[in-house]
Amino acid sequence: MRPLFSLPLLRRLLRSFAILLLGWLALSWLLVLILRFVPPWTSAVMLERQLGAWVHGEKDFHLQQHWVPWEQISSWVPLAMVAGEDQKFPYHHGFDIDSIQNALDAADEGKRLRGASTLSQQTAKNLFLWNGRSFVRKGLEAYFTVLIELTWPKQRILEVYMNIAELGNGIYGVGAASDAYFHVPPARLGPAQAARLAAVLPSPRRMHVDRPSAYVQRRTNWIEQQMVQLGGPGYIEGRAPAKPPGTHH
After folding, report:
1. Residue stretches of the chain with pLDDT short of 70
2. 129 phi and psi, to 5 degrees?
3. Domains in the chain and their CATH numbers?
């Protein structure tokens, strides 16, 4: 019986695959490198949401987002997002191993699988990937998280995250959110307003910044408390304590 592929053909196929793989790796890293300095004009999650609106005929849907540089955002905003989503952000290298292990332990005990994504992972997913729970997407998320952590400083990760995070139906980024909900520029957001924005991040289409439920208000109050316990804006401005805080959940 003749083999399906001759040895020379198999070598050519493997060589072509290796070239394509290396080319994709180089291009993806180049894109991450460029975005360290250039504001992204959109994100994969925004494109997915816009496409979904078109497909489902949401004629009134209007995507709102505009880039705001770090210097024009109140320092309470990144602190609130770190306090609410990823308190070990200044210390980890993209992955919170303890949170991942705790989530796996909870799943083994039959409890609902809890999310353990860091802000770095969420930035990678929002910027480059689609929503979903497949192993392929999680693998790509891990890959882009490593690239981002190797290429961007922590401040850049937070800056991009604050500008692309979904904060309401069609409202992305702190610039659009501060306009829509508080009618002030992002530089003038106070701690309570920043905490309210961070409070809806787990589910920004179900929770509302402008019409906070009792749960959102409780979560807002909790985030404000964590902001104080973390030491204020200095926690994300290079004046963090020498050791990460204990987990406050």
Report:
1. 1-6, 101-116, 238-249
2. -125, -175
3. 12-236 (1.10.3810.10)
Q: Give the β-pairing of 171-172 and 166-168.
A: antiparallel
- Enclosing H/E stretch for 78: helix 76-85
Question: Are 89 and 247 in contact, with CB atoms under 8 Å apart?
Answer: no
- Beta partners for 64? 171
* C-alpha to C-alpha distances, 181 to 75, 109, 114, 186, nearest whole angstrom: 18, 41, 29, 11
Buried b (16+ CB within 10 A) or exposed e, 161-196: bbbbbbbbbbbbbbbbbbeebbeeebeebebebbbb
SS3 at position 64: strand
Who's near 221: CB < 8 A, 6+ residues apart?
195
Supply the pLDDT for residue 247.
Answer: 47
The verdict on pTM exceeding 0.90 is: no
SS (H, E, C) 131-185: CCCCHHHHHHHHHHHHHHHHHCCHHHHHHHHHHHCEEECCEEHHHHHHHHHHCCC
Q: Which two tokens stand for residue 221?
A: 């109050």
